[in-house]
Amino acid sequence: MSNERFEALATEALASLPPELSMHIENLAIMVEDEALGRSLFGLYEGIPLTRRGPMSYNGVLPDRITLYQKTICAGCHNEDEVKVQIRKTVIHEVAHHFGISDPRLEELGWA
Q1: How many domains does the chain contain in total?
Q2: Which among 37, 80, 85, 93 is least buried, having the fewest CB atoms inside 10 angstroms?
Q3: Can you give the residue range of the structural domain that contains 49?
């Protein structure tokens, strides 16, 4: 799959989030890289979750970052439809971290 198509699917996944959720996303960039060095990850959230931000502790910072790992996602899928589903699941999982939801809670919800 081309990088352009993968990025388009990532954009679609982000746009598919419910508006009542996506309107609360703040200072977040989504990046695509080939794979995580030394780790087998579909995605990674790096930043300060919304639940830990405050007016005195959160200013002048770089955007939070969600990285999607294209080669890892594509290697775990058999066709474009599966890639699309995995990208969406990964975006939802990493956006949940942006909102301060932990991996154990995501596992309880079926999004881990």
Answers
A1: 1
A2: 37
A3: 3-109
CA 18 to chain centre: 15
CATH of the domain at 46: 3.30.2010.20
Low-confidence ranges of the chain (pLDDT < 70): 112
In this structure, what token pair is assigned to residue 54?
Answer: 């405050």
Neighbours of 59 (CB within 10 A): 8
Amino acid sitting at position 6: F
Structure tokens at 86: 């995995």
User: What DSSP string describes 3-58?
Assistant: HHHHHHHHHHHHHTS-HHHHTT--SEEEEEES--TTS--SEEEES--GGG--TTT-
For residue 48, what are the contacts with CB-CB under 8 A and spacing of at least 6?
58, 61, 64
